[in-house]
Amino acid sequence: MKVAKAKPDKIAGRRSGRPTKEQAQQLTEHIIDVATRLFLETGFEATSVDLIAETARISKQTFYARFVSKEVLFAAVILKRISDLFVPLSQLGRLGPIETTLVQIGVELSKRALTPAAIELERLIASEAHQFRQLSLAYHESSVHTRDLVADLFSNAMREGQIRSTDARFLAEQFLYAVVDGPARALMLSGKGVRSERERRERIVAAVRLFLDGCR
């Protein structure tokens, strides 16, 4: 896939004079989006600042006004990925019976974690983990936070008698592997995934019911 050159003038709404705070933020997000596509297409090492600036239709001065280096931009790309994947989950509340809640969590996570772009980004993170230890740690800590949120749901379900008492964190780990981590790993290896949102939801519902059958 060849990354097309974007037109930041339309995205940032740039006019003569100093840009507004909103326009500046839009331009920063535009650079991150362009860099994400380039990192996925060519890898971190092969993606130069010159290529990013040329593709984003900005000057190198504009680039360095927002990111002091390519490494800092790469960090922004990964942190945005972490935010997109994990933050929405923390906003989900208890949705009623444990089955309903787990299905909704599985659906929300799979929307973000099982897309082709997300899988490619997983590969990129794995390939560059040795260079960016702090980013790898941040990604790991976010996944632990997700596990803890799910573990709390299991603990509540145990107190209410919906499932039998056991190690809530272990249940959370196994659940996340069944609905997200396992399918993501399979996609990374095979490149084949669920073709439609309906199929994805049906698979998650089946996985949740099978999982809960072992917990009740």
Description:
- The protein is an all-alpha fold.
- The chain has two domains: 8-68, Homeodomain-like (Arc Repressor Mutant, subunit A), CATH 1.10.10.60; 77-213, Tetracycline Repressor, domain 2 (Orthogonal Bundle).
- Helices cover 74% and strands 0% of the residues.
- It is built from ten helices and no strands.
- The protein is elongated.
- The mean pLDDT is 82.
- Residues 1-23 are annotated as: Disordered.
- Residues 1-12 have a biased composition (Basic and acidic residues).
- Pfam families: TetR_C_7, TetR_N.
- It comes from Methylocella silvestris (strain DSM 15510 / CIP 108128 / LMG 27833 / NCIMB 13906 / BL2).
- Keywords: DNA-binding, Transcription, Transcription regulation.
Main traits of this protein?
Tetracycline Repressor, domain 2; Arc Repressor Mutant, subunit A; mainly alpha; 74% helix; 216 residues; 2 domains; 10 helices; single chain
Overall average pLDDT:
82
What would CATH call the architecture of the largest domain? Orthogonal Bundle
Flag low-confidence runs. Answer: none
Q: What is the CATH domain class of the largest domain?
A: Mainly Alpha
| Terminal residue distance | 48 Å
Pfam family, one: TetR_C_7
Protein name: Transcriptional regulator, TetR family
GO molecular function, one term: transcription cis-regulatory region binding
Organism: Methylocella silvestris (strain DSM 15510 / CIP 108128 / LMG 27833 / NCIMB 13906 / BL2)
